[in-house]
Write a structure and sequence with these properties.
The protein is an all-alpha fold. It is about 95% helix and about 0% strand. The longest helix has about 35 residues, at about 1-35. Keywords: Membrane, Transmembrane, Transmembrane helix.
Amino acid sequence: MNLVKTGVTLVLTIKTMVSFSCLTVMAILVGRNQGNIT
């Protein structure tokens, strides 16, 4: 049970980090595009 819990926690943490970095990249790209337009 402990191994399963640790694995699930690890997967959730990685998923959160990946989605967070994706959001950051999207925000940077949008900011650059807006900067180029204006």
